[in-house]
Amino acid sequence: MSYTLVIGNKNYSSWSLRPWLLMKHLQLNFTEVKVPLYQADTKQQLLQHSPVGQVPVLKTQDTAIWDSLAICEYLTEQHGNGWPEDSTQRALARAISCEMHSGFSQIRSLLPMNCRLRIAVTLESEPLKLEIERVLSIWKTQRQQHGDAGDFLFGGFSVADCMYAPVVLRFESYGIPVEQIHRDYMDAILALPAMQVWIAEGIQENEVISASEIYADTEEVII
Amino acid sequence: MSYTLVIGNKNYSSWSLRPWLLMKHLQLNFTEVKVPLYQADTKQQLLQHSPVGQVPVLKTQDTAIWDSLAICEYLTEQHGNGWPEDSTQRALARAISCEMHSGFSQIRSLLPMNCRLRIAVTLESEPLKLEIERVLSIWKTQRQQHGDAGDFLFGGFSVADCMYAPVVLRFESYGIPVEQIHRDYMDAILALPAMQVWIAEGIQENEVISASEIYADTEEVII
Lengths: 223, 223
Description:
2 copies of one chain form a homodimer.
Chain A: E1 4-7, H1 14-25, E2 31-34, H2 42-47, E3 57-59, E4 64-66, H3 68-79, H4 87-102, H5 105-110, E5 121-122, H6 126-146, H7 159-173, H8 180-190, H9 193-204, E6 221-222
Parallel strand pairs in A: 1-2, 5-6
Antiparallel strand pairs in A: 1-3, 3-4
Helix pairs in contact in A: 1-3, 1-7, 4-7
């Protein structure tokens, strides 16, 4: 099976990271095509890969699959080891993954992923605080229930962890206060060799996307 | 297997319609629990069914599954006949379904589902027009490719049709101009006995959600 994964900038593209991380977890060989986002010809370039003109896109021998979650479902069908084995746990893993896939708009807009950034923010936005609380509640519930079976949301690593890995990077970048049980989960994600590669390569990129650098020059940040 | 599906108002709740339609397609027996949305105690009531406090929720003997797409995946795993059989077509069906699940924010906010409403709008918003064009492009591509195999997006009825059924209702409510190939698809969705039941019951509901009635008193509507 010959795969090409079309991604955006590693420093910024949270949606690209999700299937990329699963492909590394599944130890798949694939060609990586990077299309820098927010350039004049970005949309034109991306439309050559899929009808939506967005990242990520998985290109197989037969087709192009756009959307991060659809890619993760496809790869799990083809190679296994993406969702928990138990059907009830798998349903919950999908519910948590779908919640990330369609929600958390405040986190996505106010705490953009930026591997290079380390600042401490003061949180005042109630909608943002509610979303952060919900993420922390998901992580705590899952870790309390599956702590004995491994370091991840359902014990062993799954698509659900791929979906939340960019959120770990965001909470790290913005110094979001967490409890030890969250810290341990975040450390497990950050310690993945694939995550370390992604972060290092993101930091080394030259492109600067101003839309994602909204707090870069600020000393005191209140959101 | 004993199922309960928690839904919102049939007149307004597009996310509730999606798994409900799949359950009817799969000919499953289930108990329907309706929680009227936008009431003072709505959130409190919904939090008794799932940790996110949203509709829809599928309650099984073992657990509660929130999120429409996660519910559709679960039901397809349990009962089959939800996704196309061919793995490439299944990947595309998921990509199209995921695109609906996470996107089309303009359609969702500017053309709220309202089974009772029939008006003709003048479209001026470019972001909205782009999203409508994308939906029509998806429908046309799929119908051109699978027209010989049945009346739906992948020939036979699938989860992808559940995801777009509320969009059919919206385009119908707001008189969105379409070509014959789109019209035929919309008519196939609207002719489903389950859809006719949903619409009839939605129209008969007493509750009025002002947030979804944004065009109700207007004679000339420009969006």
